[in-house]
């Protein structure tokens, strides 16, 4: 009995996640089967992995910066709505392509990848996502190229968001105090007799 229920629950979750992924592609007016698409969504065992590519044909960021383009802001705004609606927990990973020169001795691909991941986090929070749903923000520079890709390939310039289904209450709901549960101040009148 329990094994069948678990399998059925898993099928419902996968069906739901596939539906959410298809909805996101439709929201952005993207063809899921496009070869050089600016976004890739994979259904995982516990949620979705959304990769936003920083491609020259549709850049997420102003070249060599962590400043989002209009397309980048639009994609993250749409993603924020989806995350908020379905209460996903979020981790954000920033990546750069290999062979990228350091802008300065103090600003390397490590800083750029971390800054881009943080720019994505700030925009998600700005548009709808409760800060408590963001679990981790990491910059990996060029240390994790896509499998089968040349480390210097432009497809390695990307932000990857892992979205996990959550049962965790939203931060503002968790900290909210209802009117009924607030401590009440009760006025007490004392009758004091004055001495004779």
Descriptive report:
A five-stranded mixed beta sheet has the order 1-2-5-3-4, with helices on one face. It has 196 residues and is of the alpha+beta class. The protein contains four helices and five strands, in the order αββαβαββα. The N and C termini lie far apart (82 Å). Helix 2 packs across helix 3 (109-127). Residues 169-196 have low confidence and may be disordered. The longest helix has 26 residues, at 2-27.
What tags apply to this protein structure?
five-stranded mixed β-sheet; 196 residues; single chain; alpha+beta; 5 strands; disordered C terminus
In short:
By secondary structure, the chain is of the alpha+beta class. It contains 4 helices and 5 strands, in the order αββαβαββα. The protein has helices at 2-27, 70-86, 109-127, 171-175; strands at 39-44, 47-53, 88-95, 134-139, 158-165.
Which helices and strands, and how do they pair?
Layout: H1 2-27, E1 39-44, E2 47-53, H2 70-86, E3 88-95, H3 109-127, E4 134-139, E5 158-165, H4 171-175
Parallel strand pairs: 3-4
Antiparallel strand pairs: 1-2, 2-5, 3-5
Helix pairs in contact: 2-3
């Amino acid at each position: 009995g329990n094994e069948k229920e678990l399998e059925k629950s898993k099928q419902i979750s996968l069906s739901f996640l596939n539906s959410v992924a298809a909805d996101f592609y439709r929201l952005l007016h993207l063809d899921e089967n496009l070869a050089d698409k600016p976004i890739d969504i994979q259904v995982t065992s516990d949620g979705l992995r959304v990769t936003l590519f920083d491609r020259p044909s549709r850049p997420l960021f102003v070249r060599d910066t962590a400043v989002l383009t209009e397309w980048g802001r639009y994609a993250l705004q749409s993603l924020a709505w989806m995350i908020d609606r379905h209460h996903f927990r979020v981790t954000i990973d920033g990546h750069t392509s290999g062979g990228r020169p350091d802008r300065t001795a103090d600003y390397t691909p490590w800083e750029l990848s971390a800054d881009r991941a943080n720019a994505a986090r700030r925009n998600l929070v700005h548009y709808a996502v409760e800060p408590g749903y963001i679990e981790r923000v990491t910059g990996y520079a060029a240390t994790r190229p896509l499998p089968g890709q040349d480390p210097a390939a432009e497809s390695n310039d990307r932000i990857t968001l892992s979205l996990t289904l959550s049962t965790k209450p939203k931060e503002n709901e968790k900290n909210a105090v209802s009117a009924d549960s607030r401590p009440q101040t009760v006025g007490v009148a004392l009758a004091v007799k004055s001495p004779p």
